[in-house]
């Protein structure tokens, strides 16, 4: 599956189901340029995973929403819940491992922990 362009307009619909990996990048960023073919290859190897890219120059509001201060930044969702976020380009083996770990998550535990974190944040 080819990567899709993620924008503020299609963000919520894109991340609500399944496994979604988001690459925050910019055209002038050399590490982003090196990571792009790795991300693209993974998108072809994992047809059941949504791979999305956010051009931080074009989608500044979305980058700010994620508090992206360094690029590339990789964010992952599973079933609408953010489960991973890290700045820096990953080597192909690490990206493959990450996809496998996300697919194996016990989502009942993740939902419980996420709900608890949301409740704590609301009470702060």
UniProtKB/TrEMBL annotation:
Keywords: Disulfide bond, Electron transport, Redox-active center, Transport
Pfam families in UniProt: Thioredoxin (PF00085)
InterPro entries: Thioredoxin, Thioredoxin-like_sf, Thioredoxin_CS, Thioredoxin_domain
Matches recorded under Gene3D superfamilies: Glutaredoxin (3.40.30.10)
Domain of life the protein comes from: Bacteria
SUPFAM superfamilies: Thioredoxin-like (SSF52833)
Domain (Thioredoxin): residue spans on this chain: 1-119
PANTHER family membership: GEO12009P1, THIOREDOXIN 2
Sequence similarity: Belongs to the thioredoxin family.
NCBIfam families linked to this entry: thioredoxin (TIGR01068)
Name the UniProt record assigns to this protein: Thioredoxin
Organism: Brachybacterium hainanense
